[in-house]
Design brief:
Blueprint: E1 9-12, H1 13-24, E2 30-31, E3 39-42, H2 44-61, E4 68-75, E5 78-84, H3 92-99, H4 115-124, E6 128-134, E7 138-146, H5 151-161
Parallel strand pairs: 2-4
Antiparallel strand pairs: 1-3, 4-5, 5-7, 6-7
Helix pairs in contact: 1-2, 2-4
Length: about 160
């Protein structure tokens, strides 16, 4: 029973993040120090698009050889997947005024989804996108997704009842 692409479903965060890292590793040095084994309620296709955008931006902002770090942690009732670079960074004015403009790209021949589209995709899954940046020091984008209810506990409760 395949869920339709729009339908958020339980997604293993570790497997998804590791597959994204594997795909992007050929383009740039990626590192991951911490990926919690969590299940989020999300659409894997959308998560893949958002992460692809965040990682591409991080690559574009980063000097050669500066690794991009991708981590996933539990945060309250959410999963926080962060993409951190040591790149050029952005000013608060840019983040407030420009970053999330629809179809705006500061890149030459920019294509693919922008930050606005990534944020909308996150919102469509009851998630959100956070950004922190320091000019000259880099940026951290964090995709926040709802944590799946404790599926393992529900399953063991059902088994006990059987």
């Amino acid at each position: 029973n395949k869920a339709s692409p729009e339908q958020p479903q339980p997604v293993k965060v570790r497997e998804l993040v590791q597959s994204i890292i594997e795909k992007k590793r050929l383009l740039h040095h990626m590192e991951s120090t911490h990926i919690d084994d969590l299940t989020a309620i999300a659409d894997p296709v959308r998560v893949d698009q958002i992460m692809g955008h965040l990682i591409q931006n991080a690559i574009d902002a980063s000097p050669d050889g500066a690794p991009i770090s991708i981590n996933a942690r539990r945060r309250d009732l959410s999963v926080a997947i962060e993409v951190r670079d040591q790149g050029t960074g952005m000013s608060n004015e840019f983040i407030r005024g420009q970053l999330f403009k629809p179809f705006a790209s500061s890149k030459q021949g920019g294509f693919g989804i922008g930050a606005y589209e990534a944020r909308e995709l996150a919102r469509a899954m009851n998630g959100r996108l956070e950004v922190e940046s320091t000019e000259g020091a880099g940026s951290r984008f964090t995709l926040i997704l709802p944590l799946a209810k404790h599926l393992s506990e529900e399953i063991s409760a059902d088994e006990r009842a059987a």
